[in-house]
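Cross-posting from the chemistry board since nobody answered there.

I work mostly on the small-molecule side, so proteins are not my area. We synthesized S-adenosylmethionine and want a rough idea of how it might sit in this target. Sequence and SMILES are below. Is it possible to get a predicted 3D structure of the two together?
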Amino acid sequence: MELALYAPGLGYYSAGSVKLGPGGDFVTAPEVSDLYSRCVARQCAQALGGGGEILELGAGTGRMAAAILESLAAGGTLPERYAILEVSADLSQRQRERLARLPRELRDRVVWLDRLPERPIQGVILANEVLDALPCRRFVLTGGAVRELGVALETEPPAPGAAPILPDRLVERDGSPDQALASACAELLGELPAPLPDGYSSEICLRVAPWIAGIADCLERGVMLLFDYGLPRVHYYHPQRTAGTLRCHFKQRVHDDPYVNVGVQDITAWVDFTRVAEAAVASGLDVSGFATQAAFLLATGIESLLAEEADPVAHARLAGEARRLLLPGEMGEAFKVMALTRDCDLPLEGFALQDLRPSL
Ligand SMILES: C[S@@+](CC[C@H](N)C(=O)[O-])C[C@H]1O[C@@H](n2cnc3c(N)ncnc32)[C@H](O)[C@@H]1O
């Protein structure tokens, strides 16, 4: 997953495919509608309190950054700086082109970083669909033991007398887990309420803790908002979810074979939000909110934003976009929002309608 997504010049996020949007492989909530980013902006405005800065991790096409800046400018609550940390060179280029179209007053506040800031910030850190792109490890339970699911190269045996014509192909093989995976799985299995059946496979993201720790170090005071599809641990590792959550996105189609289209398709896994919360607490952050995307958008006023649109044609279009963001069968339930805070006791408005923290 690491190589397929990030190998220099070859990985999905390192090479030049379109990736996001209608001509790409998948569509994220900020690409569905600016209503989404305008709701996020409302939460940012409350958290910024008229100062501070925003740091966005993995900003995609830059559309969310543009909509947030426009929305904060309209409300007179612009941050001093809007920093973007992006690992993909071509997405970074798309962000620069998109944000160059903003008025000077806004675009002058945007900077691109090539690593996390050395001086901790006061303000808001945003990551929309970034956690699901962190490479995870896969495991399978066989005869009571944990085996790691890995990749091998298989060469098709040529027909007798014929020259080999088929290329080698990647196939799945299980092997012994290393110490890190073995102990993480032992800990996980030990705390689940129900035993998992033989043959059960899933994934575990050991990158979450160091990733959260690194970002937590950058937050002196304020709020980190994480948006992603995911579940609390007991639902994620439910005995009936026997094949995990790893999915691939290729030309707007979703499938579960990471061994095809290598380097030109996205590979993602759902987020174990209990793991995120544990990592946050270990890094000295407070878990101040956890809600579905629908509850967050309703609490930050998506309905009033929709009602402001007077033009009937534009209103109908926006209403369709809002349905896609809100409905349980679309993005409303599967996507969650988590707020991690440091030195911030605001009652965050995005979480006023729902508190799913007890499920973590
Ligand atoms: C699924 S896209 C989401 C893009 C955008 N946030 C959106 O919602 O439209 C994942 C983004 O995270 C970036 N990314 C992946 N791993 C990252 C990391 N470790 N740090 C920062 N950005 C990362 C990708 O290049 C891409 O911009």
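Reply from a structural biologist on the board:
Welcome over. Reading the output above for you: The chain has one domain: 2-136+205-239+268-359. The mean pLDDT is 95. Happy to explain the token format if needed.
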